[in-house]
Specification:
It is a single chain. The protein is α/β, with parallel strands linked by helices. It has one domain: Rossmann fold (3-Layer(aba) Sandwich), CATH 3.40.50.300. The chain is built from ten helices and eight strands. Strands 4-5-6-1-7-8 form a six-stranded mixed beta sheet, with helices on both faces. Helix 3 packs parallel to helix 6. The two termini are 26 Å apart. The relative contact order is 0.19.
């Protein structure tokens, strides 16, 4: 599986197929028993997760995993914990431009936010690390359709601003609508790949993931 600079790549598969495992392996939370993970030809296998963050990979995990007892602002600042530059304030402004609702909730305890707001916060926290590659795991899970549209509009904006994205998403139609390319994973193995349009037109993909 390859993700090229500037792309949005979708990773599709049923529950238990290995999508989350793939993301956790890329971000260093799991160590592969064979094979390797490379970032611009530099090996990441065995590199600690905090070092992988410093190298430019941020992970928005399934279930959001925000710091429930911290405020919105404190969660966002935690996303910049690896940074010592002077651009943190500017990046806070960037997150608030992408997610104005977070600015309205800046002093609110994160655990009291709605599900959609928590998802915005999880993505915003990851962006505070200025990642080159953003790993998104099921960003639409549990959200109302109107919020799903909003989240994916923002995913497009983040990509247009220069961040490469690897997207795991059960809503295959939505994922393929924003991605340039995609892969299908079954029981831990990539079984199909192609452009988003090719996958959307593939009869097997349509039957298995698009409800047709």
């Amino acid at each position: 599986m390859e993700v090229r600079a500037g792309e949005i790549v979708a990773l599709l598969g049923n529950n238990g197929a290995g999508k989350t495992t793939a993301l956790r392996t890329i971000s260093g939370l799991l160590v592969p028993t064979r094979g390797s993970v490379l970032l611009e030809d530099a090996p990441l296998t065995g590199v600690p997760p905090h070092t992988i963050v410093r190298r430019g990979i941020a992970h928005v995990p399934e279930g959001r995993r925000i710091f429930n007892r911290l405020t919105v602002r404190e969660n966002l600042v935690m996303g910049a914990y690896t940074r010592t530059d002077s651009g943190v304030a500017a990046d806070l402004d960037r997150v608030f431009t992408l997610f104005p609702r977070l600015n309205e909730r800046i002093t609110q305890v994160a655990g009291t936010l709605s599900g959609g707001e928590q998802q915005m916060l999880a993505i915003g926290r990851a962006l505070m690390g200025r990642p080159r590659l953003l790993l998104l795991d099921e960003p639409s899970m549990g959200l109302a359709p109107v919020l799903v549209e909003q989240i994916f509009d923002t995913v497009r904006d983040i990509n247009r601003q220069g961040t490469t994205i690897l997207l795991v998403e059960q809503n295959a139609a939505m994922a393929l609508s924003v991605a340039q390319r995609g892969y299908v994973i079954e029981t831990g193995a990539i079984v199909l790949s192609g452009t988003a349009a090719e996958l959307a037109d593939n009869p097997d993909v349509r039957r298995a993931y698009l409800g047709e």
